[in-house]
Specification:
about 100 residues; alpha+beta; Alpha-Beta Plaits; 4 helices; Dimeric_a/b-barrel; ABM_dom; Heme-degrading_MO; ABM domain-containing protein
């Protein structure tokens, strides 16, 4: 399994807006080959710190996803958020190979 975390921070008062966006996400990734799960995590002590966690069957399936047209479409949609401050947020991305469960 291969897990990717995209962590970003917004103002605490914007956290619910971002959570709402993810609750209504496109779900394109759900149909990607090798996709296993999506989670949106909120830091318990810093409400404005959010992490998107994606799990794939393998690194190859993840890389296939990020090279797909659907991935490009999602990231184009983000540029059109009504709140341009949110549109400008750049996450820190970390990638992990699962070595034990």
């Amino acid at each position: 399994m291969y897990v990717v975390h995209s962590t970003f921070s917004v103002q605490d008062h914007q956290a619910e807006e971002v959570i709402s966006i993810y609750k209504n996400r496109s779900r394109f990734v759900d149909k990607a080959d090798g996709f296993q799960h999506f989670l949106l995590l909120q830091n318990d002590k810093k409400p404005g710190e959010l992490t998107v966690q994606l799990a794939f069957q393998s690194k190859a399936s993840y890389l296939s996803w990020v090279r797909s047209e659907e991935f490009k479409k999602i990231h184009e949609l983000e540029k059109n958020y009504p709140d341009q401050e949110l549109a400008a947020v750049i996450p820190t991305v970390r990638q992990f190979k699962v070595v034990a469960t």
